[in-house]
Specification:
Radius of gyration: 20 Å
CATH class: Mainly Beta
Structural class: alpha+beta
Shape: elongated
Number of helices: 2
Strand content: over 45%
CATH topology: Porin
Helix content: 10-25%
Distance between the termini: 55 Å
């Protein structure tokens, strides 16, 4: 995870440098626009302490509403994987009840900051909130009592979803009305979540956004 964290920070930092040094105003139709986008990438996380890192493919869609140097981004994406997590259960050996889990959906809203541009290349950084939801979670094995079963299922229900901050660094490059983009998202997911084996989860994404028109209705 240290390598992944270093790469993510490096990409985010590199995205800011050109804009701060060589900022100039392009004529790419970016200001006050609505963009619809599709994206794909990979989520990198560990399910439990000591477990091997998982890399899960992800796909999603998004909506970007821009002004001149700030934008609202709303997105939904899903990662596809199968794994085994666990919850506390004193009635089994090791007090660890295995839980089969699969697929992870994220609902995200972020504010992106665009400090400047080099021709039609626009670096950005973002801060937002993500709602993370494990789509399928099923405890394994038999239960010795109804109380034990209820406790396990309550934990699974509680730990199958979590809200977390999300930090984004990336850049987009305009080609006509379209814009190609790449970005890195970092989310703290350490506690109270079935995917909690590392301090941060990283999502690397790339895709295309298309400018569908003005975000401001002009009064005639």
């Amino acid at each position: 995870m240290r390598i992944v964290r270093t790469v993510a920070l490096g990409i985010a930092g590199a995205a800011w440098i050109p804009a701060l040094v060589l900022a100039q105003k392009p004529a790419d139709g970016f200001d006050n626009s609505w963009f619809w986008g599709i994206k794909g990438g990979a989520s990198m996380f560990t399910v439990a302490d000591g477990a091997a890192q998982k890399t899960a493919p992800s796909v999603g869609g998004e909506w970007l509403i821009t002004r001149s140097r700030i934008a609202l981004n709303i997105s939904v994406d899903q990662s596809f994987f199968d794994g085994t997590a666990g919850v506390y259960d004193p009635t089994v050996n090791g007090s660890f009840r295995p839980v089969d889990i699969s697929d992870w959906r994220r609902y995200q809203a972020s504010i992106y900051f665009f400090p400047g541009a080099v021709n039609t290349l626009r670096p950005y950084a973002g801060l937002g909130l993500a709602i993370n939801v494990i789509q399928n979670a099923s405890p394994e094995g038999q239960f010795t009592s109804e109380d034990s079963q209820n406790s396990v299922f309550q934990q699974v229900s509680a730990y199958s979803s979590r809200a977390s901050a999300v930090f984004t660094g990336g850049a987009q490059y305009a080609v006509g009305r379209a814009a190609l983009f790449g970005q890195v998202n970092a989310m703290p997911t350490r506690n109270r979540f079935l995917i909690s084996g590392s301090g941060y989860t990283f999502v690397l994404e790339g895709g295309v956004r298309y400018n569908v028109g003005s975000a401001i209705e002009m009064v005639k």
